[in-house]
Amino acid sequence: MPNLKRTAVNKTGSTVWAGILTALVLLAMAVPVAAFDVTIDATDPDGNPLAASRLALASIAVGLASPVSSDFQDYGLTVSGFSGVNLVLVPGILKALPDVNSKVPGGQVFLLIKPKPNVTISVNTRGASLQETSSPGESRIEIRYNFVDLEFVPSDLSGNPVSGPEFGQALRVTAISPAPAGFTPDSALGPYRTIDNLFMPDNGTGINVNFQTGFNGGSAASQGQKVYANKTYYKLGAGGIPPGPTDSPGLTRIQVRYNVLSVQIAVTDQTGNALAPDRVSLPRIAVGQAGTPSTNFVPYGGTVLIPTGQDLVLTPGLLSALPGTYAKVPAGNDFILVSPRPDTTISVNTRNGNVTKTRTVGVSKIEIRYNFADVVMESADLSGSAVSGSEFNKALKMTGISPAPPGFSADSVFGAYRVLDNLFIPDKGQGVDLTFAAGLLDGQLSSHNVKVFRENTYHRLASGGAGSPASTASPGATKVQVR
């Protein structure tokens, strides 16, 4: 209006037009605005509908003119017969005033908005931005909430994710401000996890998170971090602040880095090859840490996490039996003490106790090499040529194997000559002891006790005693031949 008056004075012939324009403006101001309905909804920062779990958290209080209402309601409500005055909106979380969580926008606890016909007005609680877009046939107000899931993740010092039972008692979240709905501080160390549906103002306040980090239930370090959306923050498990944060679009995360080594525990044959399928299920191992042997035997495979530089105490076994039942490895002990190192494979041969180390970039591994063999029980003539026939269908009775293979039971009657599968042969001066009776046509002729080492053929006489020679080398085969 003042500008219009200045135009009338400074421009010749404009006085009449200025008067007409002023009259039109006054007339327009006098015309009442037609009533319309206003829908008020909650969305994410991009205007998409909130997930149900998050929509349930958001709430709104609506007042007319200037009084601030505290009557919080669920979103999706409609103000009917609206006639152009201001609305006073108080966005909230779980029907609480937003100043419990943040001031939106610009440090205020309320929004003063005048809805317009056929227009959608969007207000982002993450900042103080307000946006208008055309929406023919509809008048809307969208309050845009920024919820995030805060993920706690353990990793090694290089940032590679790590997992395992060692992290079952490694995280304790003690405080979150503003606190999410239903949050209660942890009373003790527990597993790493994700805290869902945090309201993230991101208007200069962020969220303050306090927590403790430990390892395998051990002593905990206290940590703190102010968190903003779409950032990854880094902490050290033992305390301290590594570089960071970094941008991580779509993820809000605290990564706790531990000085740990991930060690693969593998089982192979004595030359490092994978065990045959019928043998791979037989070996077991118990893994102890910090110098303490374990008796918790488990199948081979998988990984263990240890503090870098710590020793592992390994107890190889067969089907949950101590290896002393089968062999002492190495050097007469029931257990093996190894010192895993990055980029190194340590191989321990249960056949002879030998330990070798090989550089394997990117992999830290321990291989326990088992020596299994199939022992062929064979009938032969006096010159050593194999013989067969119905006469030998009831000619062998196995009475003992020590150490016994899983599932072995002594024969109660004479049967056929056969192969004894999957015998574990230490070959460290112990071998495996076989006792058996040799016969013919179901009649016993002699009894024998043979100590067997792999890749040898042992000669025994059906009439009793040892042949000559008593044994010969037979690379690739282990036999007991009864002549």
What does this structure look like?
There is one protein chain. The protein is mostly beta strands. It folds into four domains: 36-144, Immunoglobulin-like, CATH 2.60.40; 147-258, no CATH class; 261-369, Immunoglobulin-like (Sandwich); 372-482, no CATH class. The chain is built from four helices and 34 strands. The protein has helices at 2-10, 15-30, 52-55, 277-280, and strands spanning 36-43, 58-64, 72-73, 77-82, 87-93, 111-113, 119-124, 130-134, 140-144, 147-156, 171-177, 194-199, 207-213, 221-227, 231-236, 246-247, 252-258, 260-268, 283-289, 297-299, 303-307, 312-318, 336-338, 344-349, 355-359, 365-369, 372-379, 396-402, 419-424, 432-440, 443-452, 456-460, 466-473, 478-482. The strands form eight sheets. Strands 4-1-9-7-8 form a five-stranded mixed beta sheet, with no helix packed on it. Strands 12-10-17-15-16 form a five-stranded mixed beta sheet, with no helix packed on it. Strands 21-18-26-24-25 form a five-stranded mixed beta sheet, with no helix packed on it. Helix 1 (2-10) packs antiparallel against helix 2 (15-30). The protein is elongated, with a radius of gyration of 40 Å. The model is unreliable at 1-30, 97-107 and 322-332 (pLDDT under 50).
Brief summary of the model shown:
This protein is mostly beta strands. The chain has 4 helices and 34 strands. It folds into 4 domains: 109 residues, Sandwich (Immunoglobulin-like); 112 residues, no CATH class; 109 residues, Immunoglobulin-like; 111 residues, no CATH class.
